[in-house]
Write a structure and sequence with these properties.
homodimer, mainly alpha, Four Helix Bundle (Hemerythrin (Met), subunit A), 2 domains, two-stranded antiparallel ribbon, 2 strands, elongated, DNA-binding, GntR_C (chains A, B), DNA-binding (chains A, B), Tscrpt_reg_HTH_GntR (chains A, B)
Amino acid sequence: MTKGPQFQPVQPVRAYQRIVEQVEDALARGDLAPGQRLPSERELVAQFAVSRSTVREALRVLESNGVVRSRPGDPNGPEILPFSQSALRKQMVRLARVDELTLAELIGFRMIMDGAAIQVTSRLRTPEQLADIEETLVAMRAAIDVDFAAFSEADLAFHDVIAQVSRNSLIQTCNEVVRGVVLSLISDKIAHASNSRALMLESLQHHAEVVEAIRAGDGHAAARIARQNMYDYYAGYVPEPERETLRALIED
Amino acid sequence: MTKGPQFQPVQPVRAYQRIVEQVEDALARGDLAPGQRLPSERELVAQFAVSRSTVREALRVLESNGVVRSRPGDPNGPEILPFSQSALRKQMVRLARVDELTLAELIGFRMIMDGAAIQVTSRLRTPEQLADIEETLVAMRAAIDVDFAAFSEADLAFHDVIAQVSRNSLIQTCNEVVRGVVLSLISDKIAHASNSRALMLESLQHHAEVVEAIRAGDGHAAARIARQNMYDYYAGYVPEPERETLRALIED
DNA sequence: CAGCTGTGACTGGTCTGACCAGTGGACTAG
DNA sequence: CTAGTCCACTGGTCAGACCAGTCACAGCTG
């Protein structure tokens, strides 16, 4: 077996791709910053020396990736967007929807993420942040008397604050995405359950316990309680064989 | 203040967007599966009753999202791709490149994911799976004598087996993606470090410790060791102020 | 002078129709 | 039955056109 040069398979590079690359590179280099504007499509046609179709295909890709936004009639041209994690979120939702994730996997993931976020929070939180967290708890209590949607929103706020204090936006994004997917799978069952109010009260109690552990600064305990609570809350919807993997996440 | 109906701001829906939605919905419903083909562009023009430009813009978006792939001349039409985390990774790399994600966030995420996967693994692993894990450890040891790329690949295999045993493909995917991003950020520094071999040996030692804890079945200890090791391995690349959040992840 | 209004030069969204270089299956010659 | 040729059709790109919407500004009104 002769060892020749390592040739790579080469696929044709489309013109619109090179436009996308140029824009992304300019953005990475800092030549382009959020808030700035791209030239109009017709101007880009001249600069890139391609047809408008090609420019537009490139813009559609950039737009789909959350890099720019085009608005019809805007004389300033397409806008460079601030980097958000919306695109990342989109991919994760797609992953969750298409790649047939089981409920157990999603809930296990949440147990991990939320537990870790709470652990970090209980160690790094300032008194002000603790107050913020307790405030969301109050909001949750109040929302019980409205409806499940309101309660769910307050619950989201709670976990958002936690994730924010943990200073890790990746945790925040993942948590948010997975939470959304989980809810879309079972929120109906909860909202229409006859004991919906009881479930909300139970959840509230669980959150209060977590906050108590956070206040005490015991990260290990806070994480354990959070995972245990989430298990108690969701395990009923998970088929028995798969619960094992969730139980393995609960500290002894 | 009168309480009228809650009107939402409405923005125009572009034709190409509705095509994207239709395809993605069909995919989510299962009407379209990976490996299947989309009709040709000209056929889609007829089905959607729009122009080819519009169809093509939709295809570019789908292609950019990793949903389909078009090849010129292919009489079978665009191919529906199996989901891969490549699109997810692309988004993460983009976020990381513009410092929307700090290295600390990425490494913290890895510490969480990997720790959890190892915890589950140490509790659920069968003897055969333990053997598999130990086998990857042997491969890592052997790869040290090749080069850093080989070692990195063997390391990937190790964490892959772990994630697989943990029976959570979400962990697996996230781990893989984040690992890739982290490596793309600092692998150069490691590969070209004068003590590259020493770093690999240290990493190997760390992995061996983890495997030992897995063999003992002590999930808590295994997770703690894994996080500690990852901290030791990467913390040097993280600015001091941000290390605090990583330390908060290490059990006391 | 301030404020409103109408206008027109733009914008992006879509369409039509055309050409080209490739691909791959069918068809033919051996 | 195989090997080679060929052509219908693919996606990639281009040029030019029309439309509805937006925004800046000139000009009118008070």
